[in-house]
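Catalase
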Amino acid sequence: MSSNNNNLTTSWGAPVGDNQNSMTAGSRGPTLLQDVHLLEKLAHFNRERVPERVVHAKGAGAHGYFEVTQDLSKYTKANFLSEVGRRTPMFIRFSTVAGELGSSDTVRDPRGFAVKFYTEEGNYDLVGNNTPVFFIRDAIKFPDFIHTQKRHPQTHLKNPNAVWDFWSLSPESLHQVTILMSDRGIPATLRHMHGFGSHTFKWVNAEGAAVWVKYHFKTEQGVKNLDVELAAKLAGENPDYHTEDLFNAIDKGDFPAWRLHVQIMPVEDANTYRFDPFDVTKVWSQKDYPLIEVGRMVLDRNPENYFAEVEQATFSPGSFVPGIEASPDKMLQGRLFAYGDAHRHRVGANHNSLPINRPKADVKNYQRDGAMTHGNNGGGSVYYEPNSYGGPAESAQNKPAPFEVSGLADSSAYDHNDHYTQPGDLYRLLSEEERTRLVRNIVGAMAPVERDEIKIRQIGHFYKADPEFGQRIAEGLGLPAPSNP
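Structure:
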């Protein structure tokens, strides 16, 4: 029975007679345990926060659409990319990486760039950053890396000793460190930065032919960055500056947009390219593999409720659709497990059934029960497979494309270990003013490190990338440049 009144109720729908005073024995109490409304309010309040994300805790999000502008069906059979003009609803979450839920938006940190496409074939998540590379290239190092970005277990303070000790002992981080310490390390707004899938992925067309692909979202607002002093000022005065800017821009109809481009590499090139194309600490030269436009992403609607949409949104690089598959990228391979597992822990086993995560496509499987089960939990239908009762069955045409594997089962590193050419090239592309700011930022970040051996080891990496680069940082820190790096 429906009612037109506006009575406050408990979670089970019973009307509440008094929401201002708890039930007590007399006016002075004590409070009675039988006040079930009080107990429910307090118990629910204690549980109003799901555990924050271990990384990417602070974020902002928006709804929008993706529109195809160029037919690339010769490369992929993904339905949402199959027709010029096709629009797919999507949701995006931007975030900082290392800080807690209440940290500042304007710190020097990579920005998460996670896009959920609600396609007719299921949700496709592209979970990247605003940088084309990452600090490490093997998922086994990820927990250690993130530990260095978190707080010291005794002082509970950020720990530059751990940060630079890890980076100096992990030379593959040099490319990302150089980007992070450049002007791009602090975007002016979330609207004024590019986004990248970062990893290499595989596209497969209707005939089963495959190519390797990298994603680039190019902002139509132009790239703008924050001055270091202004960023620090904003961190103290308005730590939610980026969140506020994105909401206000969309609210007033100034809808931010990005053009999605891809780089396409023939499968056979992976064996001969001068860098390992699956190493996420490296980029593919756009001279070798030019950008090809795919479509346009527009953000045109703010969330109605931050918790329900932005905080409970879950993304996984393992959420593929037919025509898009994984590559052997070791960081990606680890993320295929880690992200879904984090969501099951943080939000719940049925996180994908929440409205913000629920696909537009019909979900038909044999998963049952668990926390936050929605709907009728499959009712009395068949709950196992294979079965003789006409339940959902596999479709062979949607199997991932086969690929060859070879070699010994061993704990192996990548064969390619040139960690210096690309950051050196990046340094030499910068103007003198940009180089000066880059060096200043690095010197400022390394100055608090207590042990000179860590500083000297890191200077050696900068020197190998470009002697001038290492020399200027050594001078800034008052340390000798390596004579034989």
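The chain has a mean pLDDT of 93.
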